[in-house]
Amino acid sequence: MNAQMPWLLGALVALTLATAMLVPTAPATAKEISMPPLSRSTVENACNRAGGRDYGVRDEGQEYGCISRNGSVNCTTDGQCVGYVSDLLPVTANSIDAVLGLGVNAGPIKLGPKDSRVVPQPQP
After folding, report:
1. What is the reported pTM?
2. Of 80, 70, 75, whose CA–CA distance to 44 is shortest?
3. Would residue 50 count as lying in a domain?
4. Which keywords describe this protein according to UniProt (predicted)?
5. I need a surface site. Which of 4, 9, 27, 108 has the fewest CB within 10 A?
């Protein structure tokens, strides 16, 4: 039995190392997005639409912003704002809607019912 101990110990160490390599690493860091000045009411409205949690929007002497599932917006008392999103999320604009995830993955928009009487014109 003692002759098998080094082999079992080596197998256990190898299994432990393999498992450690499969464990997810720490989440990606946030990227900072410069934003135009935003009023308190703009932040509050966008936050409500995004289903986020706003803070400081009703207190004029306090910093304000919003935290949503997709990102956050932090504004100073004079309205200068910065957005934060995960490095893994693509953000194509510096708008509050883009940072908070409004309109992202909204899916196709149905323009209207198909009319069978409308047919393409033949090309000459």
Report:
1. 0.60
2. 75
3. yes
4. Signal
5. 108
- CA pair distance 12, 23, nearest whole angstrom: 17
Would you say residue 4 lies in a domain? no
Output the average pLDDT for the chain. 77
CA distance 28 to 88: 7
Strand arrangement, sheet containing 53-55: 30-34, 81-86, 71-75, 64-67, 53-55
State the distance between the two ends of the chain, measured CA to CA, in whole angstroms. 89
- Give Cα separations from 101 to 48, 57, 73, 85 (angstroms): 12, 20, 11, 9
Q: Are 100 and 50 in contact (CB under 8 A)?
A: yes
Q: Is 67 inside a domain boundary?
A: yes
> How many Å apart are CA 78 and CA 121, to the nearest integer?
58
Q: Is residue 118 in a domain? A: no
Q: Which domain holds residue 59?
A: 36-100
Place of tokens 């995004």: 50
SS3 32: strand
